[in-house]
Every structure is written in structure tokens, then in C-alpha cells.
Amino acid sequence: MISSPGIGSGLDVSSIIQQLVSIERRPIDDLETKKKTYENQISTYGLLKSALSKFQSSMDGLKSQEKFQVYSGGSSDEESLTATTTRFASAGTYSIDITNLAVAEKQGSSAFADTDTTTIGNAGDVMNITINGESIAVEYGGKTLGEIRSAINTAAGLSEDVDLTASIVSETSTAHRLVLTSGNTGEDYTIGLSFQNSGGGAIADPFTMATIVPAENAQFTIDGTYLLERNSNTIDDAIAGVTLNFKAETTGLTLDIDRDLEAVKTNIQGFVSAYNTLMSNLKTMREGPLEGDSTIRSLESQIRSVLNNAPTGLSTSLEYLAQVGVSISREGVMSIDSDDLTSALNSDFEGVSALFADNDQGYAYRLEALMDDLLDVEGFLESREDGLQYRVDSIDSQIERMEFRLTTYEEGLRRRYSNLDVLLSSLQQTSSFMSASGLGIY
Asked: What is the pTM of this model?
């Protein structure tokens, strides 16, 4: 049999087979095109869910009335006092006198000649260090000053809330002192020391430790009436919802706690921007891979339905977002009139809060709930995506079966054309022989 079809007969067998197979492949090509369309739609659904998720995130600061409880603390002297607030704060003005800052204790030893040669005490001698009811035992006997410093810094026994650091200060080449510093301010963190020999008996302090900086509490007065004292210069339990940060001892300070309207306005602006981005993305998807798909129009309709239906039962005269400066143009673009929004916040803050965040009725509350439903793992979008993936998988199975049949078809063609090639080649040889012998057919 001739191994290369067409050589014997002169027919372009390979081209003939290729064209026949190409004709038979057209249904597969059609399926590949359809599969690509479905895959593009699946990808677009992924982008759609991402866009909805970002829009949902933009309402984090608006979806509940608690989120509107944003306050700021303004100090008359931020070099001496600053404040941070939580939603549990209340508007008010406070006069504050900081009469004493909290200080961490520091103790230092007498001088030692060197840090790495001379040993201190006898083997088995122990230093007991106590801070705020917690203690560590450090065996220092027979160790150099440098070794004792390392032993203290690596000793176990203190909790993460209690900190102690040992260091060495070298006044001269022959005068080195062990220094213990509390990592916590306040009198509760005073450093207590005691010493024992190897038998457990009390012994004198071989370091002659002395207080360099005594531990002190922060002392301050609020409104000239309430005298308070704390271990720290960061105080979160003096004024509800407010953390005070003391930086310098100063009297006559004023702290104003007020609603942070700028933060609320920023959250509303973020919502408006996210809405416009979402609508733009939906338009692109509706005119692109999801053209003809009713999903996008359904989403747009559901979002518009929320925005067009005023909340009911609110204890405010506000009903529509346009009343607080948030409006939508004929082109579908949402915008803010800053003056109108500021006026609404100043005149009826609770009403604006309810308009956006009322539990069950607020615009942001309802939109956030709608996004939750749409993005649910068992929701509509997930179902649509699963349906498209099922179609892709089904097409893959069809293509696999058709490819197998096409391979069999091509192999059959090659056998038949190879046989035809052999036959034609034989006939041509016979014809040539007869012509050469004068036996041609007339």
C-alpha cells in the first residue's frame, strides 16, 4: 500500500480529506462559539457580583443607625491633649486640667567595674522581681552584669500586659550600672525587689538598687469638679465613648465632643459614587456580554424600586433622598447638593439617619438587604451562573463525542482514499504498459 496518499495517483488526497473533515467539523466549531459565549457570560456574572459587592460595601457606614453615631473630639491644645471617640460618645464640652502625667518607674544599681568579668553574689542566689502582682525569679549568683541583664530580659513568668526591661548604663569604663525599667506607667507597676540565697533565706541587695524615676499615676480634673487618677496616660474609662490621650501637664484645656458631620457626609458621598459606578457597569454589561439577558434589567428595576418607594412609619418628615440633597438626573446619574445635605444634617440629624438606616425602612438598609439576597450563595445570580456552567459542561461533553466520531471519520477517509490511490496507480501502470505494447484500447 502506498504510505503517502496521492503519490501513486497524483490526486491531492490530503487536501481532499482536509476539506471533507473541515465540513464535518462545522457543528463542533458552532458549539465552540456557543461555549465561548457562555464562558464570557459566566465571566461577566463574576464581574457583576463583584460590582454588587462593592456597592454593598459602600453602605457599611449607612446601613444602621448605630453607624450614624460618629463623633469627633476637638482639643483646645493638641500638644497636651487629644481624644478619639466611639459611637457610645455623647456630644458635650468638658474642661480638663492635667496636673500629673503617668510615669513608668526606673531603678538603677550601684556601679560595677565591668560587665563581662566580675561576678556578683554566690551560686544559687536569686533576685525576685514583682510588678502588679506578677513575679519572676532570676538566678544571678555567680553571673556577670551582662549575664544578669540577659537573664532578666529572657525570664518567663510575666504576662503580655506587664513589661520589664533590663539594661546597662556605662558612666565610665570602670563604672557600669544595671537599670530596670517598667514598661507600664503608674503606681500599680512599681518594681518590687527581694533577694534570696540558695537556701531560700533573705539576703541584702547586692546591687544596692535605688529609684531613679518613681512610678506615678496620671492625675486630672474634669469640669473643675471630678478629680481622677489612672495608671496610664491613655484613658478610656473617664468619659463614656471617649479615649483621652495625655501628652503634657497643662491646665485650662477644653475638649469638645460633637457629631462628626464630615464623616457622615463622606459616607454618603461614597454611597453616591458607588451607585454611579454600579449603574455604569450594569449598562456596559447590558450592552455587552449580557445583551438580551433579562438579569441586568431586573437588577436595575429592583434597585430603582427601592429608591422610588419612600419609607413608611418614620418619625420624621423626610421621605425621599432628594430632600437631603441626594438626587438622580434623567440620565440616571446620582449626585449630592452639599449645602442641602449639610442643612438637613444640622436641622434633623436623626431624620437623615432614619431615612438611610432605619431598621426595615431606610434606603441604605433596604438596598443592603437587596444586595444580600442577590449575592446569596443560593440566590438568583448564583443560579444563573450555575445554569451557564451546566451548558458549558454539556457542550464539552458533546464536543468530546463529536471529536471522537470525527477522528473515526477521518481515519475511514484515509483508508478509502489510500485504497483508491492504490487502485488508480495500478490502472495507470496497466494503461502505460498497454500503450507501450501497442495494446491500447481503441
From this structure: 0.66
